[in-house]
Write a structure and sequence with these properties.
Elements: H1 3-9, H2 11-48, H3 52-55, E1 57-61, H4 77-82, E2 92-100, E3 104-108, E4 119-125, H5 128-131, E5 132-137, E6 147-151, H6 152-158, E7 165-169, E8 174-185, E9 199-202, E10 210-218, H7 220-229, E11 234-241, H8 251-263, E12 269-272, H9 275-318, H10 320-328, H11 333-360, H12 370-394, H13 412-435, H14 445-465, H15 467-479, H16 484-493, H17 499-533, E13 538-541, H18 549-554, E14 559-575, E15 581-589, H19 600-603, E16 612-616, H20 618-624, E17 627-632, E18 635-644, E19 658-662, E20 678-683, H21 688-707, E21 721-724, H22 725-731, H23 738-780, H24 785-822, H25 839-867, H26 869-875
Parallel strand pairs: 4-10, 6-8, 15-19, 16-18
Antiparallel strand pairs: 1-11, 1-12, 2-4, 2-11, 3-4, 3-7, 5-8, 6-10, 7-8, 9-10, 13-20, 13-21, 14-15, 14-17, 14-20, 16-19, 17-18
Helix pairs in contact: 1-11, 2-9, 2-11, 2-12, 2-23, 8-9, 9-12, 9-14, 9-17, 9-23, 11-12, 13-14, 13-24, 14-17, 14-24, 15-16, 16-24, 17-22, 17-23, 17-24, 23-24, 23-25, 23-26, 24-25
């Protein structure tokens, strides 16, 4: 029989092997590409949100008093770019040279300057002439007097018009300039405008209010003349990275390149950028996501590889008689293996290639190891069946044989191998916890191997433990009426003879439970982070509110409670037992009504106590002892340490030094009240805009009481911001890598469930011939079809139960065992919590188990029809 005819004859078995090979090849390429694509998109989104001062690489000359640049630095723009460390040069999307004067006040000619005039910088920048649209006047053409052009909105804010002569005054010089024209931006999204926004800043004396800050554009000659008069003109070379060219696999190289550019900048310049810090932070998150994805992917691929081996064994078992006949006719073992290899080469490689191509069609960036993994999958899918056939041909058999009790006892070699596997898994987990992730290894091989080894070790332990209770249960079932339970439990007790299905099922369930446990753990930690950052339903932040702001906000509709608080970052603390002065974050609030998680010593504090009770952080408590004095808004208050806590609601998980005081017990004088800068709001359905407007009204009232003049909304240096706990919690899931995290969780659970069901189906198919012969004999004794189905249930339910328990325990403890190496705290705003599992995930596992039993019954019924059980005894057939 030719190979093609044999392929047609055994099409079902080869098709199963080919489909599993294609599925595994797709899992190698498709999900990884999609995850990488989402990671890259998250990185680009995070970089795109950065301010220009953080994301751009800016080389700036050292500022010296009276030094004026010649304004010809544009000649070095390209050479500096070529000198950037690789791979920065190829990622630059825009480059500009800037000659800029120091910040100076601007006063129109003939106008008496106020106590806090607006400020501007005069700039000549390459490319600006092509980025502007003149709407009034003309472009700058400086002569003896510098000419400038102003953006239309900036001119209105500064109070200047075309033709005005303005006086500029800097710290070390002054000059006049003429406004030649007004312009609008040709493309408001052009990155050239990123550092030229019209802003509002506070005056040097807060009682003087605020002032506008703007940039005026000029030509080269105007910049030099203005710089000469103002005694300063600095050079800057600004390079913007094109985020659409950046991929997450280059983050580490980019970080090193920026650090090198900082250490070795061009002569007489220094690098102004925090891009390396941003990239380093993102790289830490990417490493954590890659580590988590590697664990899930390793579990899924290990399960898929196990399914391929099960399919190969199924194919071999169904053809055992054929192989025995070949051996009886003088065929060698290699003949049997070569015969099977030729068959698999016809069907399997094309299927693996198709699965890989399907993965290639998924949008995203491929992993570097993708070709190697696909090649490994192809080799496994092609060689699994020939190797199994060769092993089967070494011990040919024409019929099945009964396994007696002695066959259930494992050999010393097998016990040694199983013990070695358990020890190897324990050692891998220990080493991973001891040394953490290998930062230079890409995806740490220990991290890939340890979880799979742990799941396999759990399956081995389960295989050795489960026969004892099953045998006991079988003996009890033998005393009961009916043989269905006894026969089914007896078959289940022989599971150690066929460890493959259970091992694959345990790995699949462990991977799914690990994914669910990580999901629940991260969710719980994020909930805790939201409670710490926003200790009420909403928190309002501002500069200074009136002392009665809590009553104003509490009077709004749907507001149940409002508490004013002062978060004072620069409080000076001196302990009674220490002469050292310490700076800390002080929080002053009315603890009696705040409804926060505070000790009774604060909530029950009453006026008249001296000193007042306080809650302090552990490190501060070690520094100050049992009590001391804290200075808040210029006044000292004595306190005693009532309790030491690691965290304080409202300060977030990153706070290390803090001190919390109950305002209701503090001796605050009426002439120097505590001016709050936070409002904690509780309620349901309140209008956020209304709360913000009320808070800003309080700020304006406080500033007006300070300055004695009316204050407009636009004059507030720090308008009130309202952050709800729900919005903060949602924000924790909207950072750059969170899309990859969600994808990993979803894909891991779906793939694990699907592969677990496939493992159960293959386990049923593997034992279908032997069960078919047993059912044929039992039906002659009166066994009904319903009893036959119950027989399968009694055989499978222990297997599935053991797999769920072993895999569930392995998957649940994995986050606790290797969580520190995964760096999960990077996704939870620094909050760490114990491992948790949502009941819905546990219910999902039980649902998958039920579906697996139902699927097994369906597959068994189909297999029994193909085997024609009614003819087995009559004809002695052993169907394939």
């Amino acid at each position: 029989m030719t190979p093609l005819r044999r392929v047609r004859a055994f099409a079902g078995q080869l098709a199963l092997l080919a489909v599993l090979g294609a599925l595994t090849a797709f899992l190698v390429s498709g999900p990884a590409r999609l995850a990488n694509g989402r990671t890259d998109a998250g990185l680009r989104g995070d970089i795109g949100k950065l301010e220009a001062s953080s994301r751009d690489l800016t080389f700036q000359t050292a500022s010296r008093i009276g030094e004026v640049s010649g304004g010809y630095g544009d000649r070095e723009l390209e050479s500096y770019r070529r000198g950037l460390p690789a791979p920065l040069g190829e990622l630059i999307g825009g480059a500009w040279y800037i000659a800029e004067t120091p910040q100076s006040s601007i006063v129109p000619a003939g106008v008496t300057p106020g106590v806090c005039p607006d400020v501007v910088t005069v700039r000549w920048q390459t490319g600006a002439d092509r980025a502007v649209t003149i709407v009034a006047g003309r472009a700058a053409r400086s002569g003896d007097l510098p000419e400038v052009i102003a953006e239309r909105d900036a001119a209105a804010a500064l109070g200047v018009r075309v033709g005005d002569r303005v006086h500029l005054t800097a710290r070390y010089g002054q000059t006049d300039a003429r406004v030649a024209g007004l312009f609008t931006r040709a493309d408001p999204g052009d990155p050239i405008w990123a550092d030229q926004a019209l802003t509002v800043g506070a005056c040097p004396d807060p009682r003087e209010g605020i002032r506008d800050q703007a940039v005026l554009l000029t030509d080269r000659a105007g910049a030099v003349r203005a710089g000469t008069g103002l005694a300063g003109l600095s050079d800057r070379w600004r390079y913007r990275l094109a985020e659409d060219r950046i991929t997450a696999d280059r983050v580490a190289a980019l970080t090193r390149a920026v650090a090198l550019a900082r250490r070795e900048p061009p002569e007489r310049t220094s690098l102004q950028s925090s891009l390396d810090n941003t990239l380093a932070g993102f790289d830490a998150q990417v490493r954590a996501v890659r580590a988590l994805l590697a664990v899930v992917q390793a579990g899924i691929l290990a399960t898929a590889a196990g399914l391929i081996l099960l399919a190969a064994r199924l194919m071999t078992d169904r053809r055992r008689t054929e192989f025995a006949l070949l051996r009886a006719r003088g065929g060698a073992v290699r003949t049997v293996a070569g015969r099977t290899l030729r068959e698999t080469l016809i069907a399997v490689p094309a299927a693996v290639a198709a699965g890989w191509l399907a993965g290639v069609l998924v949008p995203g960036r491929p992993d570097e190891v993708e070709p190697l993994l696909v090649a490994a999958v192809a080799l496994l899918a092609v060689l699994a069946a020939p190797v199994c056939a060769a092993l089967a041909a070494r011990r040919p058999a024409f019929s099945g044989h009964r396994l007696d009790a002695s066959a259930l006892r494992p050999s010393a070699r097998r016990l040694t191998a199983e013990a070695f596997l358990v020890v190897l898994a324990a050692g891998a987990i220990y080493l991973l916890r001891r040394r953490g992730l290998d930062a230079g290894a890409g995806v740490d091989p220990y991290l890939i191997g340890a979880p799979v080894l742990l799941a396999l070790a759990a399956s081995v332990v389960a295989l050795r433990v489960v026969p004892f209770p099953l045998r006991r249960a079988g003996k009890l079932a033998a005393r009961a009426r009916g043989a269905t339970a006894f026969l089914g439990l007896s078959a289940a007790a022989r599971a150690p003879l066929h460890p493959g299905p259970l091992a694959v099922l345990v790995v699949a369930i462990a991977t799914g439970l690990f994914t669910g446990a990580v999901t629940s753990t991260v969710d719980a930690a994020r909930d805790r982070a939201a409670q710490l950052a926003v200790p009420a339903d909403a928190m309002v932040a501002g500069y200074r509110f009136t002392p009665d702001i809590a009553q104003r906000v509490a009077a709004l509709p749907h507001v149940d409670r409002a508490v004013a608080a002062l978060f004072y970052p620069g409080a000076s603390v001196r302990g009674d037992s220490s002469a050292t002065l310490t700076q800390t974050q002080a929080v002053v609030l009315d603890a009696g009504v705040a409804g926060l998680d505070l000790p009774a010593a604060l909530t029950g504090a009453r006026p008249g106590g001296d000193p007042v009770p306080a809650v302090v952080s552990p490190r501060l408590a070690r520094q100050i002892g049992a009590g001391g004095t804290v200075e808040v808004l210029g006044r000292p208050y004595r306190f005693t340490v009532a309790e030491v806590r690691d965290t304080m609601p409202g300060l977030g998980a990153g706070a290390r030094d803090f001190l919390v005081l109950p305002q209701q017990a503090m001796p605050v004088p009426d002439f120097a009240p505590i001016l709050p800068n936070r409002i904690l709001v509780d309620g349901s359905g309140f209008d956020i805009d209304q709360v913000r407007a009320t808070a800003d009204a309080g700020q304006r009232a406080q500033l007006q009481a300070l300055t004695g003049t009316p204050v407009e909304q636009s004059q507030l240096a720090a308008p009130a911001t309202v952050t709800t706990r729900a919005a903060y919690r949602a924000g924790l899931e909207q950072r750059g890598v969170d899309g990859v995290l969600s994808f990993t969780f979803t894909a891991g659970m779906i793939a694990s469930a699907a592969l677990a069901l496939t493992a159960v189906v293959l386990a049923v198919l593997t034992g279908a011939p032997s069960r078919g012969r047993t059912l044929s004999r039992l039906r002659t004794m009166g066994l009904s079809p319903a009893q036959g189905r119950r027989l399968l249930v009694f055989e499978l339910v222990p297997l599935i139960t053991v797999a769920v328990l072993a895999g569930g325990v392995a998957g649940f403890v994995l986050p606790a065992l290797i969580g520190a190496a995964l760096g999960l705290s990077g996704f939870t705003a620094g909050v760490t919590v114990g491992t948790s599992l949502d009941p819905w995930f546990a219910g999902g596992v039980l649902a998958v188990a039920v579906v697996a039993v139902v699927a097994a019954l369906v597959v068994e019924n189909v297999a029994n029809r193909r085997l024609r059980l009614g003819t087995v005894l009559r004809l002695g057939e052993e169907q394939s």
